[in-house]
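Lecture 7 notes: from sequence to structure.
We start with the chain below.
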Amino acid sequence: MSLDFRVFPSGYLQTNAFLLTDAQRGEAVAIDAPHFLWNDVSPVLRDSGCELKALLLTHGHYDHIGDAARIAKTGAPVYGHAADRAMFETPEMMRSYAYPPDIQLEGFSVDHWVEDGQSFEILGTSCEVRHVPGHCPGNVLFYFADLKTAFVGDALFAGGVGRWDLPGGDFEVLQTSIRERIYTLPDDVVVWPGHGPDTTVGAEKATNPYVSAQ
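Predicted structure tokens for the same chain:
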């Protein structure tokens, strides 16, 4: 495969966004869209001669969707889980816990609602969706088996887990989701979270202090 992979910590909280490009195909996919992402991504697309074919959203929290409306206006179809539909369409509902207080929040429409267990082809490879609620109702991961990589949103971090004290969060649900949807991936799969460094499924199963493998 000829995929190029880049990480863009963006926005007010340095939220990780990701760009997969295939110059041979002239196609690219973005995963999550924190504020100001398009400023970094558009030159890469131009220089590589790639068209953005999809924006995959792991969940609806404001720091992951800040530039989604802007990117959607380019014509790239948006993918997300329906359990976070209200946050996608009316992000003002997150104003009470958004940072900074005067942050711009613009709603948008999702073109493709993803579901647990769904697979679709993109960039010439297969992407599997797994629903991982607990941080918020609609958190999903996107698993690219050929790349041995999973983009998990804020469900799991290196040595940590996502917050469960925001509206729609539930620690017990999060624990179950991680065990059933992330820890069941192969141990050598690289896990890219919404914040911080990457890790692996095996490392988190062995050492994560919040969620044991059993």
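Points to note: The chain has a mean pLDDT of 97. The first helix runs from residue 37 to 48.
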